[in-house]
């Protein structure tokens, strides 16, 4: 399981790098657009729209990587006040809920893509393209989150019976 976990960690590292590259590309695009607007009274076509999609893709690919790093949103005030075994149980329940929701949303995302492809739905703004081009990262992200929750549960079961110390944990 550790070799598989390390390989999976490399996949998530690639997701984190992709998210960072998208943020960099959006930054360059915004700066170029501002310079063109202020110096040459013109703008890049669809720059706002491209930035919107870039933000969506960046957050989508960053989510499983952040969960793996323990940098996800976490409010652990209650966990810090519970006895270690009780906090461990709460961690397990939260991971099981996260796993269940990730499986459900993976299935829902796949269903949305299939329906969008069958209906040939288009996104019509400045750019016109098939809607599923925007939707495809959702089931991928939730599938990656599903796998990460399985690894989190495995690490929780094999570790000490206490709450995790992640991110900004107290």
What coarse outline follows from CA principal-axis ratios?
Answer: globular
* Helix-strand string: HHHHEEHH
Secondary structure class reads: mainly alpha
Our count of domains comes out at 1
Q: DSSP strand (E) fraction?
A: under 5%
Strand order of the largest sheet: 1-2
Helical percentage = over 70%
Radius of gyration: 20 Å
Number of helices: 6
Low-confidence stretches: none
Total number of beta strands? 2
Head-to-tail CA distance between termini: 30 Å
* Oligomer kind: single chain
How does the major sheet shape up? 2 strands, antiparallel
Overall pLDDT level = 92
Please tell me about this protein's structure.
Helices cover 76% and strands 4% of the residues. By secondary structure, it is mainly alpha-helical. The chain has one domain (2-158). A hairpin with a 3-residue loop joins β1 and β2. The longest helix has 39 residues, at 2-40. The mean pLDDT is 92.
List the helices and strands and how they pair.
Layout (H helix, E strand, L loop, with lengths): L1 H39 L6 H23 L7 H5 L2 H36 L2 E3 L3 E3 L1 H4 L1 H22 L12
Helix pairs in contact: 1-2, 2-6, 4-6
């Amino acid at each position: 399981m550790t070799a598989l976990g390390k390989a999976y960690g490399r996949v998530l590292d690639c997701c984190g790098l992709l998210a960072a590259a998208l943020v960099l590309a959006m930054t360059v695009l915004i700066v170029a657009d501002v310079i063109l607007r202020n110096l040459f009274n013109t703008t890049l076509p669809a720059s706002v729209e491209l930035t919107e999609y870039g933000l969506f893709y960046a957050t989508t690919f960053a989510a499983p990587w952040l969960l793996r790093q323990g940098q996800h949103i976490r409010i652990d005030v209650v966990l810090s006040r519970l006895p270690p075994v009780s906090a461990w149980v709460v961690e397990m329940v939260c991971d099981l809920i996260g796993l269940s929701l990730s499986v459900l949303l993976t299935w829902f995302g796949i269903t949305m893509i299939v329906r969008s492809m069958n209906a040939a739905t288009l996104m019509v703004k400045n750019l016109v393209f098939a809607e599923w081009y925007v939707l495809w990262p959702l089931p991928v992200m939730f599938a990656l989150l599903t796998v990460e929750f399985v690894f989190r549960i495995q690490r929780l079961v094999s570790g000490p019976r206490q709450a995790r110390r992640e991110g900004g944990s107290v």
